[in-house]
Design goal:
- The complex is a heterotrimer of chains A (567), B (451) and C (55).
- With 567 residues, chain A is an alpha/beta fold.
- Chain A has 15 helices and 30 strands.
- The radius of gyration of chain A is 32 Å and the shape is elongated.
- The N terminus of chain A is likely disordered.
- With 451 residues, chain B is of the alpha/beta class.
- Chain B has 4 domains: 123 residues, no CATH class; 155 residues, FAD/NAD(P)-binding domain (3-Layer(bba) Sandwich), CATH 3.50.50; 75 residues; 75 residues, FAD/NAD(P)-binding domain.
- The longest helix of chain B has 31 residues.
- Classes of the chains: A alpha/beta (567), B alpha/beta (451), C alpha+beta (55).
- At the A-B interface, helix 3, helix 10 and helix 12 of A face helix 9 and helix 11 of B.
- The complex binds flavin-adenine dinucleotide (2 copies) and iron/sulfur cluster.
Chain lengths: 567, 451, 55
């Protein structure tokens, strides 16, 4: 490790011209002369490009030959160049965290191109502030923690099973926990799987067999996770099976708890006999339809896209089209009508199925949510009346069977699971991923991953892709074997002051804080590998008990003081 | 993007193409051609001084041709790598003219006009195809008159107009107005030249051109050669000045686009072109309408579509919010025709299926939600790799193994396999990584534990 | 020893695959035909459903 030279503050400042990007708009010579006058500065150099090989060598030379103990580079943005300069300091034997960067390009020369004099004054301010902070920098050691090479997958539907097999095939041990007595999830209750119309039971049997025979997989059915403690790499998980409760060490967790089908009690005369859900329809089709059924009406968005459940459940239109075609297969002269708002047959395969269904004679009628269809019992069958908005007419359709396409909704125990794992759910009760667009399979908290209908309704293609994807994300800490965290994190610098109020614990977006009972009473404890250094806690703590490494109050105050002492 | 450029395990080869692939899963040999940029990647710091000085302007592909860049350029400002590239089709030096200004400007000595392509050979265990998609060219649809009507744009072009770093700094300037402004600029340049010429005469004869011209027209100086030249030049000047004044007057009334029409399924769900649904375009039209409204809150938008497919997480809510807060109305119906209205305003003729009427409406700008189509070069790439394509030329996969191609060890993800939005692409990208890792990483020898 | 992987195309999909593999310790060769990576997403102003900037 580089020696700690923090008692002898000798600051070297490198001012970059960035070709003409900086030098074209600021007075570089004045800037360098001024910098030489700043306290603790023992070495100043201008470079054409500090980031070029030549520039980097100059930094290393100054560390070795000029005995510089802090490095400040005044140039562009730390986002692109900070890591390069830091590692260069390290290579020359200076602790990487004794480096500070000042942005005199993006935030100065570029925005004040017409104002050479003022721009130069601002650059002086910025450098003075950087130098003031640099004097107070302290070395920081990266934080490391081992990862238990074992994954837990919660939920044994197609998404969870796919993730389990993928991780096991990579050589990791996987513990799969399923609440029901069989693996397979929703697929156990389906008939044929669109768009290829494979038998659901055969498909699930094949995968279940692979899982039960895999030496790396332990699958617990009729089981539940009852307690989760710890953090990425080091979870302690209680799994309650019928016979006993086990406590297992786990490294990463995948949430694949799926969803359930909304039961439309009180909607459209739902009775489970003449008026059924698509899920019940799957079973009717599997048993074989009563050949007296001649008229079938399906109603889309039954219980979704309304005030209570505003979202579109993505898969019900595909399911309706699939089942409509299967009805036609069993009873070719049946009249099947689908009453819809928008047919959500997105993509290549779905749209193709949609076209095929029209060719097979399935009828589609658009309804207006303001005037929804009505289902009335008549004699032995029912009647559906609907305002056909394209014809502008009220139509009455006889129906031997009405099928309601109800949405997939969140599991009843999703909120309990979210508390158990300290992960959020969205306003519809589905789990909320780290970033809806860029981190669809991660949580903000490291070490927990997400796939399948637990995230949002998905078809099998999507659930499988997400299962594989979640396995990929989860395998990253497993393949590293340890988690290494940048040491810019929160630390309890003033333990005395902490009253254990827990305000910061509630606000931390990464579940990186907990309250512990110590000899000195309730105190906050930072789980360093989970902390991302966002600073929310330090900003909140009214006792100033917490502080962020490399952004301490003293360092920030020194910067502010330096700014105010106008030259 | 930045993380990709910086990651020690990623070797980035931009401006490169796959030439040859041999071998099988676990053991492929790949030949890559690294095309010459005429700029040394190791020396170029991306500072951009060269592009500032380069005298040659070229339509900018990144800005879908709506702006210009120089013959030496970085693909876009934040591009990774930031290495500049010389466009051999336009560079004066490379086309035999005397120039080399960039070489003189570059302080890092990175310009190398003698650079050659490099051939690199790689040994890899597996291959992931993530070659993406292209947007459909709507000029194939005659009734939408995309190539004739200046204010009919594709959604991607519209993204560039909305972008603060785009060719209009984020203002919805009408392309027809921008054309006029470009014309004004060109005429002003001419006028400048012409004025300087006239000034010489005025000095010589100590008289204003106007006064002189009146006299000349009355027949004075008719045998003076020099003055005849002067008169000709002044006539030329007037001939430019008149249209210039007209155009300038016209430009005074230019405003940004406020009445927008978005047309869905342009090239998609259309048997003449691509019968499939592109999946994400309903959403990007809503998004663009919301952002346009954020820019100027008098903006109104109408989205014409058969179904509005808002099928992702939070999408339906997004659509409703757009309708409630961003002056968006959704019209169920297919647009039959776009025609030229007054002041270059496009007129949309459509069937309102709810009211069962054929209607026409004038807009400032019409934005076409063009289909997601297989990317150029995918057929050749598929041939090199030996992978099968589906009937539209997307990489073929199956619903139960969504990222596996027919060749073991070769995987596909993102829009190369089928149209999909960013969240789906990211999820699939991780799936492909998982499948590839199964080949690349030696199995870990971990002791099994019995619970 | 891990073996290398080739990723063809540097759009959002290619970048994400590369990052996942690289983070697992696999050496990735990312080949992009244009002068910079980023793909279509780099050309977008902002992206749904979060409306934050594209890249
Ligand atoms: C009527 C209907 C028809 C469909 N037809 C098709 C089709 O033809 N083609 C197609 O591609 N898709 C179809 N789908 C979609 C398909 O069902 C889903 O893609 C798939 O089920 C998603 O799998 P999953 O693993 O995410 O969730 P699920 O299948 O819901 O599995 C989740 C599993 O997790 C378990 N679980 C939940 N909570 C816990 C807990 N706390 N602890 C332990 N275990 C728990 C559950 O018991 C379940 O086994 C259909 C869906 C429906 C409703
Ligand atoms: C106007 C518009 C707006 C959109 N807005 C949104 C939005 O707001 N939110 C959202 O989620 N989605 C949006 N999308 C969809 C989004 O663009 C895609 O989902 C996403 O870009 C797909 O990423 P990709 O990596 O698969 O493909 P691409 O982005 O196309 O990337 C493919 C890359 O591969 C390269 N390549 C191609 N062929 C080769 C080859 N032979 N060799 C080497 N490299 C090659 C290309 O140059 C490119 O860099 C929008 C699309 C459009 C058209
Ligand atoms: S810095 Fe942020 S992540 Fe770390 S403990 Fe504080 S609030 Fe949590």
């Amino acid at each position: 490790m580089p020696e700690n030279r923090d008692n002898d503050v000798r600051i070297g400042v490198f001012i970059c011209h960035c070709g003409s990007n900086i030098a074209g708009y600021l007075e570089m010579e004045t800037l360098a002369e001024y910098t030489e006058t700043l306290p603790n500065v023992t070495f100043v150099q201008r470079n054409l490009y500090t980031c070029s090989e030549g520039g980097i060598n100059e930094i290393k030379k100054a560390i070795k030959e000029q005995n510089v103990t802090r490095v400040v580079v005044a140039s562009c943005t730390p986002r692109t160049h900070g890591p390069l300069f830091m590692s260069s300091c390290g290579e020359a034997g200076l602790h990487p965290y004794l480096f500070e960067m000042v942005n005199i390009r993006d935030q100065c020369s570029w925005v004040h191109m017409q104002l050479k004099e003022d721009g130069t004054t601002k650059a002086k301010d910025l450098i003075r502030m950087g130098v003031a902070k640099a004097a107070l920098l302290e070395p920081q050691e990266p934080i490391m923690s081992d990862v238990q090479l074992r994954a837990l997958v919660i939920g044994g539907g197609i998404a969870g099973m796919t993730a389990t097999l993928a991780l096991a095939n990579r050589g990791y041990e996987v513990v799969l926990v399923e609440k029901q007595e069989a693996l397979g999830g929703m697929l156990n209750r389906l008939n044929k799987l669109g768009p290829v119309m494979t038998d659901a039971s055969g498909f699930i049997e094949g995968i279940t067999e692979k899982i039960t025979q895999h030496p790396k997989i332990t699958a617990f059915t009729n089981s539940q996770v009852t307690e989760v403690q710890g953090f990425i790499g080091k979870y302690k998980v209680d799994i309650e099976t019928e016979s006993k409760t086990r406590n297992i060490d786990i490294g990463v967790i995948i949430v694949a708890t799926g969803g359930r089908v909304f039961v439309p009690d009180g909607l459209y005369g739902y009775d489970g006999k003449k008026v059924v859900t698509q899920l019940e329809m799957e079973q009717l089709l599997k048993k074989g339809l009563d050949s007296n059924i001649k008229n079938v009406v399906m109603i889309q968005c039954a219980g979704s896209r309304n005030e209570e459940r505003p979202y579109c459940s993505r898969i019900c239109c595909q399911t309706a089209v699939k089942n409509a075609m299967l009805i036609k297969e069993q009873i070719p002269d049946a009249r099947v009508s689908i009453l819809y708002r928008d047919m959500q047959m997105y993509g290549v395969e779905n749209e193709e199925m949609f076209r095929d269904s029209k060719a097979k004679g399935i009828r589609y009628m658009n309804y207006d949510p303001e005037k929804p269809p009505e289902v009335k019992p008549v004699a032995k069958s029912v009647q559906v009346s609907v305002y056909h908005s394209l014809l502008g007419q009220e139509l009455t359709l006889p129906a031997d069977l009405v099928v309601l396409s109800t949405p997939v909704v969140a599991q009843e125990d999703a909120v309990a699971t979210s508390h158990l794992l300290r992960i959020p759910v969205d306003e519809n009760g589905f789990f909320l991923e780290g970033h809806v667009k860029l981190k669809p399979l991660d949580f903000a908290t490291d070490g927990v991953y997400l796939c399948g209908s637990a995230r949002f309704p998905a078809n099998i293609r999507e659930a499988v892709a997400q299962g594989l994807g979640a396995a990929s994300r989860a395998s990253i800490p497993l393949s590293k074997g340890s988690v290494v965290v940048e040491p810019i994190i929160s630390v309890l610098t003033n333990e005395e002051a902490c009253r254990g109020c827990g305000l910061c614990v509630a606000l931390c977006p990464y579940s990186a804080l907990e309250i512990q009972n110590t000899e000195k009473g309730r105190k906050v404890h930072v789980i360093d590998v989970a902390c991302k250094g966002c600073g929310v806690c330090a900003a909140t703590c009214y006792q100033h008990a917490l502080s962020i490494n490399s952004f301490t109050d003293q360092q920030l105050e020194a910067q502010i003081d330096a700014f105010l002492e106008v030259s | 993007m930045l993380d990709v450029g910086r990651h020690p395990n990623i070797s980035l080869m931009a401006y490169s193409e796959i030439e040859k692939v041999e071998g099988h899963e676990g053991n492929f040999t790949v030949t890559v051609r690294r095309k010459k940029r005429y700029v040394d990647e190791a020396k170029c710091t991306g500072c951009g001084a060269c592009a500032e000085k380069c005298p040659t302007s070229v339509p900018d592909a990144f800005n879908t041709g709506l702006g210009t860049r120089k013959a030496i350029y970085s693909y876009f400002a934040q591009g990774i790598p930031s290495t500049h590239t010389i466009d051999p089709d336009f560079c004066r030096q490379l086309n035999g003219k005397k120039c080399g200004i960039c070489q003189k400007t570059c302080q890092a000595d990175a310009i190398d006009f003698d650079q050659e392509d490099k051939i690199v050979e790689l040994d890899v265990a597996g291959i992931i195809i993530a070659a993406g998609y292209d947007v459909f060219d709507p000029s194939q649809i005659p009734e939408y008159r995309y190539s004739e009507l200046p204010n009919v744009l594709t959604a991607l072009e519209f993204e560039r107009l909305l972008s603060a770093s785009g060719p209009t700094d984020g203002h919805l300037d009408l392309p027809s107005d921008r054309a006029v402004e470009a014309e004004i600029k060109a005429l002003e340049k001419k006028i400048g030249k012409s004025k300087r010429m006239l000034e010489k005469f005025e000095k010589k004869f100590d008289e204003s051109s106007k006064q002189f011209y009146e006299k000349y027209n009355k027949g004075d100086y008719s045998d003076d050669k020099d003055r005849k030249k002067w008169a000709d030049k002044y006539a030329e000047y007037l001939a430019i000045m008149e249209p210039l004044e007209d155009l300038k007057k016209k430009a005074e009334s230019f405003t940004t686009a406020k009445r927008l029409a978005f047309i869905q399924c342009v090239g998609s769900r259309d048997f003449r072109f691509y019968p499939f649904c592109s999946g994400y375009c309903c959403m990007h039209s809503i998004k663009e309408a919301i952002i346009a409204h954020e820019h100027e809150n008098e903006t109104t938008s109408r989205i014409f579509g058969m179904d509005i497919r808002a099928i992702g997480k939070g999408f339906e809510e997004y659509k409703i919010r757009g309708g409630n807060n961003s002056n968006i109305t959704y019209v169920r119906g297919r647009v039959g025709e776009i025609s030229q209205g007054p002041n270059n305003n496009p007129v949309v003729t459509y069937e309102d299926t709810h009211e069962r009427l054929v209607k026409s409406q004038e807009f400032d700008m019409v934005i076409l939600a063009t289909a997601c189509v297989p990317t150029i070069g995918i057929i050749e790439l598929a041939k090199i790799l030996g992978v099968e394509l589906d009937k539209y030329n997307f990489i073929k996969t199956s619903p139960f193994s969504p990222v596996d191609t027919n060749v073991p060890g070769i995987f596909a993800c993102g829009c190369a396999g089928a149209p999909m939005d960013v969240p789906e692409s990211v999820a699939q990208a991780s799936s492909a990584a998982e499948r590839a890792a199964e080949i690349a990483i030696q199995l870990r020898q971990v002791q099994n534990v019995q619970f | 020893m891990n073996k290398d992987i080739l990723v063809i195309g540097g759009g959002i999909a290619g970048m994400q695959s590369s990052l996942d593999l690289a983070d697992m310790g696999v050496k990735v060769h990312l080949v992009e035909k244009l002068p910079s990576i980023g793909g279509k997403m780099a050309q977008l102003d902002k992206t749904f459903p979060t409306n934050d900037c594209a890249i």
